[in-house]
Design a protein that fits this description.
Elements lengths: L3 E11 L7 E6 L21 E4 H9 L2 H7 L2 E6 L6 H13 L3 E6 L8 H8 L3 E5 L5 H8 L4 H11 L4 E5 L10 H14 L3
Helix pairs in contact: 1-3, 3-4
């Protein structure tokens, strides 16, 4: 039986969520409540529309020429795509069969590490890990949850054979101070691009 995904929307020719021109799928559901979130309508895990991998791939392949010409591919974003790890894994497998580069844009808030997470990472060409704030107290005020799970996921990724880009949003008064910038410089060599 095919896994059903729940998506909010997609962007056919994105240029900021991974290398090249990308087909970005915004998955429904997120457990963080970032004060600066620009996709608040993706938070509800029951919202959006249901879709199969086959239906999504019909959309994706129509943009293959643009992706191939630019060194692009697909990006699973959100909301939080990792909440639907089985679906994203199956979608990325289908993309790899078509020779399409895959990118997981995640906040790293992983609740449990089961084989599905490993299987997803095996078909992920790039992880863009969004670090909201290194100071846990500020992180909790900024997004509503601790940063421990995100940092645990960063540690987990450092042991995997997957390329990682660290991303963060500079928010005046929240993530633009010298301590935050210094902490990003310290963490980047351990978890950054390989």
């Amino acid at each position: 039986m095919s896994v059903i995904g729940r998506i909010h929307s997609f962007e056919s020719c994105g240029t900021v969520d991974g290398p090249g021109i990308r087909f970005i799928t915004f998955f429904q559901g997120c457990l963080m409540r970032c004060l600066y979130c620009h996709n608040r309508d993706t938070w509800d895990t029951h919202g959006g529309k249901e879709i199969t991998v086959e239906e999504l791939m019909k959309e994706v392949v129509t943009y293959r020429h643009f992706m191939n010409a630019s060194g692009g591919g697909v990006t699973a974003s959100g909301g939080e795509a990792i909440l639907q790890a089985e679906f994203v894994r199956d979608w990325f497998r289908a993309c790899h069969k078509e020779g399409i580069h895959t990118c997981l844009d995640t906040n790293g808030f992983v609740r449990r590490y089961d084989p599905v997470i490993d299987e997803l990472l095996e078909v992920t060409d790039l992880v863009m890990l969004d670090l909201k704030q290194m100071n846990d107290d500020i992180h909790q005020n900024l997004v509503g949850v601790s940063n421990h799970r995100t940092l645990e996921f960063a540690q987990y990724l450092s042991k995997k054979d997957v390329k990682v880009w660290i991303r963060y949003v500079v928010v005046p008064g929240w993530s633009d101070d010298d301590d935050f910038c210094a902490s990003i410089r310290r963490i980047y060599p351990r978890y950054g691009q390989r």
